[in-house]
Write a structure and sequence with these properties.
mainly alpha, 434 Repressor (Amino-terminal Domain), RNA polymerase II cis-regulatory region sequence-specific DNA binding, homeobox, Lambda_DNA-bd_dom_sf, transcription
């Protein structure tokens, strides 16, 4: 479980770097995810993911979608 926590922390940092590189704020990123995947993510959700403040289950559910966006 500790290894997964570290992995999530690294991914959250990568996600933030990608968002900034593309010039998106958290709200715009959420809207873009909505266009790509049919589900808009709020700025709060993006922020909470980055800070790992969502439940473990939610983090694991969102991660695959966010990984696709990072690619």
């Amino acid at each position: 479980m500790k290894a997964l926590q570290i992995e999530l922390e690294k991914f959250a940092k990568l996600l933030k770097q990608k968002r900034i590189t593309l010039g998106y704020n958290q709200a715009n990123m959420g809207l873009t995810l909505g266009v790509l995947f049919g589900e808009v993510f709020s700025q709060t959700t993006i922020c909470s993911f980055k800070a790992l403040q969502l439940s473990f289950k939610s983090l694991c559910k969102l991660r695959p979608l966010l990984e696709k966006w990072v690619e």
